UniProtKB/TrEMBL annotation:
Active site: 16
Pfam families named among the record's database cross-references: PMSR
Peptide methionine sulphoxide reductase MsrA domain ranges (all copies): 9-159
Family of the protein in this entry: Belongs to the MsrA Met sulfoxide reductase family.
Keyword line: Oxidoreductase
EC numbers: 1.8.4.11
Catalytic activity: [thioredoxin]-disulfide + L-methionine + H2O = L-methionine (S)-S-oxide + [thioredoxin]-dithiol; L-methionyl-[protein] + [thioredoxin]-disulfide + H2O = L-methionyl-(S)-S-oxide-[protein] + [thioredoxin]-dithiol
GO molecular-function term, one example from the UniProt record: peptide-methionine (S)-S-oxide reductase activity
Protein name: Peptide methionine sulfoxide reductase MsrA
Amino acid sequence: MMTTAAIATAIFAGGCFWCMESDFEKLPGVIGVESGYTGGRTVAPSYEQVSAGGTGHTEAVRVTYDPSRISYRQLLDHFWRNIDPTVKDRQFCDIGSQYRSGIYWRNEAERQAAEQSRDALLKSGRVARIHTEIVQATAFYPAEEYHQGYYKKNPIRYNFYRRGCGRDARLQELWGGK
């Protein structure tokens, strides 16, 4: 039985939140993933408001996890390998600041871990530049219910979108099998 002391959350943005939700939910130690919006000015925005731009929000996921089974650093490693950090204000076929990539830290340890992971990625030479923002977390607003678990509720549409967007092809190009 897990106590609430054993639960932590992390917020990441990597373009389409349906895809990020799917990618994170597969990890052992992840308890749940919620699609939503963060980083903007509008209180409790709707999908229509965020996707139109102008709210300052980005599509994001809030990952609830058990730190005794998966660490924040492991989540960071998984995050980097599921985005294209080399582009600004877009991910794959989704364009606009509402699809920017980001790591939203809640404390100094998370900030340091996020910055160290970014610096290690740059030092590795795999990418020449990184446009992923690393900023303090602000309010996270859950997306509408129809977005939650979208990849499970609508697998045909989801897979068509993911393939059509070129997400997996670009990730393979960037990261290979890793």
